[in-house]
């Protein structure tokens, strides 16, 4: 997995949502979400057989990477119905409309990425470039936009912006969308970057944004002093975005509409696995729990590990689950002047924060306390993620 910074970017807004034009209605609150993450869909007979593969590939982008599971079941209700649009436009309602059948229109030029984009709308996502804060990141060249499409670039005044602006989002328009003069852009990045409006895959922000919408996990979930509860929130959030596991990184981030929110580290399937074991368990003290988790993972060929806040049934008994990480960088650093490694559970956030700071100061993305201390206990071991390893990213838990 390539190193990325988390960008949860979604909006639910009352504005038009099209990949190519034709006005549609939209809804603007969490009431627009589908009643279940298991959603039926149908490929209407009007869709040419040559487009079926692209539709299923676009659907799979969401199925394989998020909590959303779209199942082809033409008899179920409610369901999404992909229909052919003879006028050459691809578009969708934004969010669930309360109908038994909700249409997503596709033109003959629609690719798998187009399908994924329109499904994103149907699930409740707005265009990235209509965020409330978009003027801090892009310039909209209205003078070069055809008149009938200018509304597609307007800021959604009722939008809910989550996280940071994401140029890589599959919900972002390309730079040359609806131009009067095709040789000139209609959207320009203020950072002088060139990538906008890709349709190759969901971004990390797309995945985590959908998790934010449908997992119902928000910053106030992670305000408890109970380490296991907070870890479980982070773990479930990352799982909903298609990752194997996650944990809080001990940091908080300023967020305009929500005050300060917690940081989370998500780990990808290729680097993380779970080891439930009756020999270790969370006992209310962060460090005394973290050390056996680390030792257990190290004994099984991994670099480090942590309790993810979940439990499982093993041999008839409920035990704690551990997430093991294959590659991390061990850093030994003094903690004595800052922290007591035997602090009670409510100090776990300070311990995680210290690990985060030590790793960030060394150029890594984030880090966790290993639970181990060396020699006379003046040296504290932490594990850092990111840097050259590109195996973790730090983000915001929304």
Task: Describe this protein with a few key phrases.
single chain; 398 residues; alpha+beta; Collagenase (Catalytic Domain); 2 domains; five-stranded mixed beta sheet; three-stranded antiparallel beta sheet; 16 strands; disordered C terminus
Principal-axes geometry comes out as: globular
As residue ranges, the low-confidence spans are: 1-30, 217-224, 269-273, 387-398
Mean pLDDT: 75
Q: Give the SSE order as H and E letters.
A: EHEEEEHEEHHEEEHEEEHEEE
Task: Explain what you see.
A five-stranded mixed beta sheet has the order 2-1-3-5-4, covered by helices on one side. Strands 8-9-16 form a three-stranded antiparallel beta sheet. It has a three-stranded antiparallel beta sheet with strand order 10-12-11. The protein folds into two domains: 30-207, Collagenase (Catalytic Domain), CATH 3.40.390; 215-398, no CATH class. With 398 residues, it is an alpha+beta fold. The protein has helices at 52-63, 112-123, 204-214, 227-240, 286-299, 348-361; strands at residues 38-43, 69-72, 79-84, 91-92, 101-106, 138-140, 187-189, 245-255, 259-267, 272-274, 304-314, 317-325, 329-334, 366-374, 379-385, 393-396. The chain is globular. Strand 11 (304-314) and strand 12 (317-325) form a beta hairpin. The protein is built from six helices and 16 strands. 19% of the residues lie in helices and 25% in strands.
What's the arrangement of secondary structure elements?
Elements: E1 38-43, H1 52-63, E2 69-72, E3 79-84, E4 91-92, E5 101-106, H2 112-123, E6 138-140, E7 187-189, H3 204-214, H4 227-240, E8 245-255, E9 259-267, E10 272-274, H5 286-299, E11 304-314, E12 317-325, E13 329-334, H6 348-361, E14 366-374, E15 379-385, E16 393-396
């Amino acid at each position: 997995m390539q190193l990325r910074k988390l960008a949860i970017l979604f909006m639910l807004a009352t504005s038009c949502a099209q990949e190519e034009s034709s006005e549609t209605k939209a809804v603007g609150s969490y009431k627009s979400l589908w009643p279940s993450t298991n959603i039926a869909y149908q490929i209407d007979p009007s869709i040419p057989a040559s487009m079926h593969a692209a539709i299923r590939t676009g659907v799979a982008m969401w199925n394989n990477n998020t909590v959303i599971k779209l199942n082809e079941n033409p008899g179920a209700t409610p369901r999404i119905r992909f229909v052919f649009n003879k006028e050459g436009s691809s578009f969708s309602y934004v969010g669930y409309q309360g109908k038994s059948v909700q249409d997503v229109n596709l033109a003959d030029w629609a690719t798998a990425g187009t399908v994924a984009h329109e499904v994103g709308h149907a699930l409740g996502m707005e265009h990235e470039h209509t965020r409330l804060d978009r003027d801090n990141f892009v310039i909209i060249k209205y003078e070069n936009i055809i008149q009938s499409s200018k509304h597609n670039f307007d800021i959604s005044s009722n939008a809910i912006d989550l996280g940071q602006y994401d140029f890589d989002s599959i919900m972002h328009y390309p730079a040359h969308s609806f131009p009067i003069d095709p040789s000139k852009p209609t959207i320009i990045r203020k950072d002088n970057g060139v990538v906008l409006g890709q349709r190759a895959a969901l971004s990390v922000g797309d995945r985590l944004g959908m998790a934010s919408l449908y997992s119902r996990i928000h910053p106030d979930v992670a305000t408890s002093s109970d380490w296991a509860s907070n870890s479980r929130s982070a773990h479930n959030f990352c799982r909903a975005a298609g990752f194997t596991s996650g944990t809080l990184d001990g940091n908080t981030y300023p967020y305009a509409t929500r005050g300060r929110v917690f940081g989370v580290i998500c780990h990808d399937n290729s680097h993380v696995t779970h080891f439930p074991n009756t020999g270790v368990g969370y006992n209310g003290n962060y460090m005394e729990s973290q050390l056996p988790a680390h030792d257990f993972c190290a004994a099984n060929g991994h670099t480090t590990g942590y309790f993810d806040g979940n439990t499982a049934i093993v041999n008839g008994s409920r035990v704690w689950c551990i997430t093991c990480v294959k590659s991390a960088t061990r850093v030994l650093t003094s903690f004595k002047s800052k922290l007591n490694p035997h602090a009670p559970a409510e100090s776990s956030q300070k311990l995680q924060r210290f690990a985060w700071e030590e790793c960030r100061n060394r150029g890594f993305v984030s880090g966790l306390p290993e639970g181990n201390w060396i020699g006379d206990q003046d040296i504290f071991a932490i594990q850092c993620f990111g840097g050259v390893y590109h195996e973790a990213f730090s983000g915001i838990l929304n």
